[in-house]
Every structure is written in C-alpha cells, then in structure tokens.
Write a structure and sequence with these properties.
By secondary structure, this protein is mainly alpha-helical. Helix content is 56%, strand content 8%. It has a two-stranded antiparallel sheet with strand order 1-2. Helix 3 (55-67) packs across helix 5 and helix 4 packs across helix 5. It is elongated.
Length: 189
C-alpha cells in the first residue's frame, strides 16, 4: 500500500507541474471550444470548396456579404492585405462571378467591389441554416441558463481578445460591432 501525501489546497502535485497542460487537465467545455474552432475551420473549408475560393477569397466574400459594397482600399484594410494583394483577390472573385467592380458614386476616380446576389444567396444558403440551428440550440435552455452560457462565452471571447493582441481590423459580425450604416449612407471608403 502506497502512502499518500496530502497537498495543500490549490497546490499542484509535483508530477503534474512537470507536465504541460493538456487534454487531461482541461475542462470538457474548454475541449469543446477547441473542437468548435476545428469544426469552424472545416465548415469554412467546405464553404470555400462549394464556392471554388481559397480561404483569403472566402474572408473577402464574408466582408462583402456583411458590409455590402466596399472600395478595394477598405477591403484591403479589413483583410490586412496590400493593395496589390487585394487586387489579385478581387480579380479572382470577379473571374468566378462572385463580385463585380462598379464606379464609386462618391468618388469619380474610385471603384467599389460589389458582391453578386447569386453568390451571396449561395453562401447564405449554407450559412443561414447553420446559424438558425445554433440559435435554436440556445433557446432550448431557460433564461437563467442562457445568461450563464452567454456570460461564459463573453469571458472566453474577452480572454481570446486579450491574448490575440491589438487588432484594428473591422469585424462587422462581432457581437459588439456598431450597426451597419443605413441604406442611404455611402459605402465605406
């Protein structure tokens, strides 16, 4: 019979301290968050395959679907790309029929990148059923449970943001993003 050494509350046993944190020490909810990130990548890869676009082009389409028409400069800023790189992205998307360039009514020398309705409908045909099902899932919980789940996820998001470093890129789909401009407002840059 081996003798057990009692550890003070909150202390880490020496054997555990020597090992990096892993699946054995993570809460099931934390492991599910990791799985959610993985399956999100799988979904985006599948959507990209359906639309015949690479991950960068898919991100560009996401911005255009959410924001509507954008100038190439605004799209480049949102993607964190150079003007040359975003031109290549726009050329590919235009070649596939996902976007078109139109003159910018607010800047006679500028252009806007406009998402094609058919491509938006095709993408949303995959995205909306999933989002609706996820939303139905939260409504299966009572209001108190929903509040706990929401508070947990808010803290997880804040933790990720704290570890991700500063980002000034626009992410209009974020829960704390300002509302989009009204229909009569001019497009971003």
């Amino acid at each position: 019979m081996s003798e057990s050494v009692e550890q003070p509350p909150g202390s880490v046993p020496p054997a555990a301290a020597a090992q990096p944190p892993g699946a054995g020490s993570s809460h099931a909810a934390t492991l599910l968050l990791r799985e959610l990130l993985d399956v999100t990548e799988d979904f985006e890869r599948s959507l990209g395959d359906d639309l015949s676009v690479n991950p960068t082009d898919l991100k560009a389409m996401q911005h255009l679907i959410v924001a509507g028409a954008l100038s190439p400069t605004a799209l480049a800023e949102r993607l964190g790309l150079s003007s040359g790189a975003v031109t290549t992205v726009i050329d590919r998307l235009e070649g596939l029929g996902h976007v078109r360039r139109t003159p910018n009514p607010d800047d006679r020398r500028g252009t806007l990148v406009v998402p094609e309705r058919a491509s938006v409908a095709r993408a949303m045909g995959r995205i909306l059923p999933m989002v609706s099902e996820v939303d139905r899932t939260i409504h299966a919980f009572d209001e108190q449970e929903q509040a706990v789940i929401t508070r947990y996820l808010e803290r997880v998001v804040a933790t990720y943001r704290g570890h991700a470093g500063a980002s000034d890129r626009t992410r209009s789909w974020r829960a704390d993003a300002p509302p989009p401009p009204s229909a009569g407002a001019s497009p971003t840059r």
